[in-house]
Write a structure and sequence with these properties.
By secondary structure, the chain is mainly alpha-helical. The protein has two domains: 1-67, Alpha Horseshoe (Serine Threonine Protein Phosphatase 5, Tetratricopeptide repeat); 79-129, Serine Threonine Protein Phosphatase 5, Tetratricopeptide repeat (Alpha Horseshoe). The chain contains eight helices and no strands. The longest helix has 15 residues, at 99-113. It is elongated, with a radius of gyration of 16 Å.
Length: 129
């Protein structure tokens, strides 16, 4: 991912008006563990069609930083009809120890997505706690 981050950084420098490059750069930085840098890049994106994915990635970054409050703030800005929004909310609730509420989210996500082994795993974790 380091090479990808380097390549996307160059693309952003060459074409700063292309938000897709910024998104890919931010994603690569996140995969490299450079969370603050990734957030800085993502905060520069303005293209409306990318904003739901930007918010999901920002939420994931904050979650990785153990900042569940900021993560939920970004999740709340995501599309309500996106199953990832429900799953991400469930993850935050689980991390906060709110297992019953998390279970409701994961159950709803399972209904929205059909069979998803990761969602079922999260359901099992909630039941075990």
């Amino acid at each position: 991912f380091t090479q990808a981050a380097d390549a996307y950084e160059q693309l952003v420098q060459i074409s700063p008006e292309i938000d897709d490059y910024k998104f890919a750069f931010g994603q690569s930085l996140y995969k490299c563990g450079l969370n603050d840098e990734a957030l800085r890049v993502l905060n520069q994106i303005e293209q409306p069609s990318l904003m739901n994915n930007v918010r999901k990635l920002q939420a994931a970054i904050c979650y990785a930083k153990e900042d569940t409050k900021a993560s939920q703030t970004y999740i709340d800005q995501c599309n309500d009809d996106d199953p990832d929004t429900v799953i991400n909310t469930g993850c935050v609730l689980y991390k906060e120890g709110k297992y019953d509420e998390a279970l409701k989210c994961f159950t709803k996500a399972q209904q929205l997505t059909g069979y998803n082994s990761k969602v079922w795993y999260n359901i099992a974790l909630c039941i075990m706690n």
